[in-house]
Amino acid sequence: MSALSVYPENQPEQGQLYTDFTAIKSQLSQLGVQFERWTATAPLAANDDQAAVIAAYSDSIGRLKAQFGFQSVDVIKLGADHPEKANFRQKFLAEHTHDDFEVRFFVEGRGLFYLHVNNTVYAVLCEQGDLISVPANTTHWFDMGENPAFTCIRFFTTPDGWVADFTGNELAKSFPTLDQYVAQLP
Q1: pTM (2 decimals)?
Q2: pLDDT score at 31
Q3: Rounded to whole angstroms, how far apart are CA atoms 33 and 133?
Q4: Sequence spans of domains, the chain
Q5: What's the pLDDT score for residue 166?
Q6: What is the pLDDT of residue 141?
Q7: Rounded-to-integer distance, Cα 96 and Cα 140, Å
Q8: If we measure between CA atoms, which residue out of 17, 33, 7 comes closest to residue 130?
């Protein structure tokens, strides 16, 4: 289940929860965040390679590439047995921005994006089938959980890929981790 919680930045225990897809999409669109749900046009197996994953979503990928002029598309898969999972998690947990917008589509698994806009924090739980586009220069962080298990399609408009400008703000540490967030959902 996808979810959105909206918090005052200084009250991480006071979130307003949304679980209806239309309500989530409406709330996020006010921030310029694109939130969509995609389905594959071909069946996928757990061990399918990048080409098969991209082919299964080729119609949606083609539409998005035409809309935004993406230069490259790739697939990242991260599991609980990945030797660098702790390092990746710590890097993404630090509040940061990008000069480019960040677009992720969850082929499988889940992840938790936090957007820090003005004095409000938006926690967006993305699950299989969800696409999120975080606008350029939006302060945010991402939690994949202690034992990540996800496959994402990533979109880039520049050949540099993922380049972060870290804010140094410690706010992220006061909000629930992915595992804590999921555990408190109804």
Answers
A1: 0.93
A2: 97
A3: 5
A4: 3-184
A5: 79
A6: 95
A7: 6
A8: 33
At 86, is the secondary structure helix, strand, or coil?
Answer: helix
Handedness of CA 27, 28, 30, 36 (dihedral sign): negative
Torsions phi, psi for 142 (to 5 deg)? -140, 135
Q: Residues with Cβ < 8 Å from 122, sequence gap 6 or more?
A: 4, 5, 6, 7, 27, 28, 31, 114, 115
Instruction: Give the other-Cβ count within 10 Å of 92's Cβ.
Output: 18
**CATH code for residues 3-184:** 2.60.120.10
Tokens of 71: 């230069």
**Residue segments in the chain with a per-residue pLDDT below the cut of 50:** none
Are the CB atoms for 119 and 163 separated by under 8 Å? no
**What pLDDT was estimated at residue 61?**
95
